[in-house]
Amino acid sequence: MPDGTPPRVTRTLTSPRALQAAGLLPAAALPGAEAVAARYSIAVTPAVAALIDPADPADPIARQYIPDAAELLTAPHELDDPTADGPFTPVKGVVHRYPDRALLKPLLACPVYCRFCFRREAVGPDGGLLTEPELEAALDWFAATPAVREAILTGGDPLMLSPRRLAAMLGRLAALPQIEILRIHSRVPVAAPGLVTPALAAALETAKPLYLCVHANHAREFTAEAAGALARLARAGVVLLGQSVLLRGVNDSAEALEALFRAMLRARVKPYYLHQLDPAPGTARFAVPVEEGRALLRALRGRVTGLAWPTYVQERPAGGGKVPLGPEWDAKAG
Ligand SMILES: *Cc1c(COP(=O)(O)O)cnc(C)c1O
Ligand code: SF4
C-alpha cells in the first residue's frame, strides 16, 4: 500500500504474521506472539479486526484478542482448569455440577480466541468436536437424567456448528419430556455476526424456550451488524441475555460498564452475569480485585436502569460452582 495502510481484513486472522500484516501487531511484538501461538489458539475475525484502532496501544478490543508475551507467565495462583470440570463429567462433552441443569460441549472451536479465556487450555480450532457416537452418548445421558431440566450448549461456541447439526441437536434435547428450557452460550453474534444467517436463526426456533447468552465485554462490540444479528435471533423467539467478564483495561470503569450494559439493552440483550476473571494461566494482566468490582457495581446502582444490572459472580475453586459477589447494602443505612 503506498500510504502504508494495511489492507482491509477479509478473512479470520489466525497467526501472529497475519496479525502483523493486517497492522494489528507491531513487528517488535512478533517473537513474543509467536511463542504464545505455540501454546494457545489465535483468531481475529474481520468484524473484530474492523473494530480495533491500531493507533491506540491500549485499545480495549485489541486487548481482548491480540496475543501478548505476558500470556507465557503463569502466576502462582493460576490453574490449568480453573472451573475443575473433570469430576463433574459423567460422559465426554457433558458437565453436570448442579442438580437441574447440565452443560453440553459439542465442540471446542470459537469464532475468536479471547486472551483471558478460562478454557484456554482446551479451546481451539482442531479437535473437540464430538464424534457421532460421542454425541449420541451425551444425548443418551440427558435422556436418562430426568432431574436435568435445562440443557446448556457451550464449548467452544455452539453457533459455529452448521444450522443443520444445531437444529438436530436442539430438536433431540427439546423432545425430552424433562427438558424445560434450552440455553446456548455464544460469542458469535458480536464476534462473527455474519454467521447469524436466516438458516441459523431458523435452526434456533425450537419447541421449548431457548435462552442465548451472548458474551461481550465492551460497548463497541455492539455494532450495527451485531445488532442486526441479534434482532434476527429475537425475531426467531430467542431470549437474549448478556454475559461479560470484568477485565482490566477493557471495562474496568463505571463509565465503560455503563456503556456496555446500555449497548446490550439497545441490542435487546439483558445483562445476566458479570464474571470475576477465572485464574487461567497467563491471564494476570486482566485481573481486577473483587473489592474494586464491587465498588464499580455500587457506582452503577441508581445511575442506570435496573434492567442493566447483572449479577456479579465468581467461580469458586475446585469445582465449588458460581457464587454471587454482591455488592451488598445495609437496608437500614441511608
Ligand atoms: C455456569 C454453569 C452453569 C450455569 O449456571 P447458571 O448460574 O444457571 O447460569 C451450569 N453448569 C455449569 C457446570 C456451569 O459452570
Ligand atoms: S469465545 Fe468463550 S470459550 Fe471461546 S475463547 Fe472466548 S471466552 Fe473462551
Could you give a quick summary of the protein structure above?
This protein has helices at residues 16-21, 30-37, 46-51, 60-65, 132-143, 163-174, 188-191, 198-203, 224-235, 254-266, 290-300, and strands spanning 94-98, 101-104, 150-153, 181-186, 210-215, 239-245, 270-275, 311-316, 321-324.
Strand order in space, largest sheet: 1-2-3-4-5-6-7-8-9
Protein structure class: alpha/beta
**Cα distance spanning the termini:** 62 Å
Shape: globular
Count of individual domains: 2
CATH class placement of the largest domain = Alpha Beta
CATH architecture identity of the largest domain: Alpha-Beta Barrel
Uncertain segments of ≥5 residues (pLDDT<50)?
A: none
